[in-house]
Amino acid sequence: MATVKLEHIKACVFDAYGTLFDVNAAARAEQQALGDKWQEIAEIWRMKQLQYTWLRSLQRRHADFWEVTGDALDFAIASAKMADPALRERLMNLYLTLSAYPEVKATLQTLKRAGMKCAILSNGTPEMLDAAVENAGIASLLDGIYSIEEVGIYKPDPSVYQLAVDRLDVSPSEISFQSSNGWDAYSAKAFGFNVIWCNRFGQADERLPETPDAQIRTLDELPAIVGAV
């Protein structure tokens, strides 16, 4: 996998959904109700969730990530020709307690022992992020949880990435940014971060300006790259 070594890193900043937290966990937990359509619904839900963030940003018609997530779920359920208000409510509530990937907590612990600042930079609302962090038991390992709600526009607008610089009081060159989303990883690199693309799903390379410094499949590869071990 990755062989690059980054120097002078003072902070590791993580995307939340798909990077720290499993976005398919909610639909997976309702497999019995969703049947063999659960994975299709999970994929459409996530795709539309992202599309709606970009479209709302371009339209300058902001709605927070909870509303966007609900709209995307409604589209996914309608696409599967299902209609069940109780199921919708359960799925939305499950999104507040998405499970963290298995290596997340240990990775953060290793980074913190090495003196790294660790933070989340996410499209999620503060309430959504706080719920996920509490459920994962990682609050004590984070120096900050930053939501795009502070700037009122979604990634990949540069003002979102600037949040991490301002809040952590470090330069972009001293930050290693991790995301499982290719578009996010490439955009963060264009902003000026060091970027590790946690390419969990084997996505193809993006055709966007700039290229992440390295690709990994799971976050347990990160500490060695940033000099934390």
From TrEMBL:
It comes from the Bacteria. NCBIfam families: HAD-SF-IA-v2, HAD_type_II. GO terms for molecular function: (S)-2-haloacid dehalogenase activity. It comes from Sneathiella chungangensis. This is (S)-2-haloacid dehalogenase. Its EC number is 3.8.1.2. Belongs to the HAD-like hydrolase superfamily. S-2-haloalkanoic acid dehalogenase family. The lineage of its organism: Bacteria, Pseudomonadati, Pseudomonadota, Alphaproteobacteria, Sneathiellales. InterPro entries: 2-HAD, HAD-like_sf, HAD-SF_hydro_IA, HAD_sf, PGP-like_dom2, S-2-haloacid_dehalogenase. Keywords: Hydrolase. Catalyzes the hydrolytic dehalogenation of small (S)-2-haloalkanoic acids to yield the corresponding (R)-2-hydroxyalkanoic acids.
